[in-house]
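1st attempt posting a full record on here, be nice pls
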Amino acid sequence: MVGRGAPSRLRPMRFRATMDAMNSFDGLRVLALESRRAAELAKLITTYGGQPIVAPSMREVPLESNTEALAFARALLAGEFDMVIFLTGVGTRALLSVVETAHKRDEYIEALQRVRVVARGPKPVAALREIGITPAITAPEPNTWHELLSALDDASKASPALNLRGARLAVQEYGVSNPELLAGLKERGAQVTRVPVYQWALPKDLAPLRAAIAAIAEGTVDVALFTTAVQAVHLFQVAAEMKLEEPVRNGLARAIVASIGPTTSEELQRRGIRADLEPSHPKMGYLVKEASEQAEELLRRKRQGIASGG
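the predicted structure (as tokens):
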């Protein structure tokens, strides 16, 4: 189940939920790398019969300097952008907070109303509607950069005014920069400006994460849940510091890897890990429920395959 080649668009195995069956991890040890919603995720795992191993892997911190965000605001107010792409709800709200330190909220909103606003998914849509902005284009589920580029392509076919060639674009970034999205926009002829608003750091207390990495390497984790791509980045960053990268890959190859959606699955693929399961909807509740329904059978198949050399 481990691949090391150049990542193509990943299509992890999906299994239809068995609504009648008892939904239970049946005592399996389930790793959760969530930070902000760690307690909620641990409770869900317990509810579905798992033994939660909680190891926060990230913390959100403001950028020390918001020069890019403030430069974006000045350029937007001066009419120097044709389109603004919002990738996350948190980033959309954070950007507004930064802009308000130097400009009036109403001026910012009016400037956004003069350009084409694009949202990657429902969270930035909700954040934009809070300030009276309705996106002209929204990517459909699973709301990855693939769907975003497709939605932009469809819009440009429907209306020449939405063609990206020569368009001046600003992209609100989140967590890890998405080189594929930026490259795709540039390939379509857009002039792209990155607008990083916040970044992710490792937790101040790394002990739980280090213990989780050791457990994966020792083969004592049965299921690993990834709810964002940054978790994979930080897991392997700390594993490298511990000189346990390869044992972690081997440990995850024997465990069930459940990913919240394609963006996270692709980051795992970059690390040499193929996700075994994505939920039917990219939400934490669906992830835990559907992983609990499928984990035992998936684990049995996976370990049988390893034992037989498949």
